[in-house]
Please model this.
Amino acid sequence: MTIELNFYTTDGCHLCDDAQKLLKQLLVDYPQCYQIEIIDIVESASLVEQYGTRIPVVADANRAHDLGWQFDYPTLISFAEGLVKSG
Model:
């Protein structure tokens, strides 16, 4: 079972760069478990409204659960594992 994650970000966001490194590590450690779509919030006014002050944000594909910055790798793992258990 592959869990789809959305990564809400935008260009020039240094915090987003830090979060993206954590997501890359997640894919290295669990290559069969997660798929990540990178979404630039600037493409949608509603995404800017929802996530503009919270990015970087990782969410499940249907946006029912999300994890806003600031998070570390163990917190990301815990969030992702929670999605696996609830999925």
Remarks:
- Residues 41 and 49 are 9 Å apart (CA to CA).
- Residues 3-86 form a domain with the Glutaredoxin fold (CATH 3.40.30.10).
- Residues 14-29 form the longest helix (16 residues).
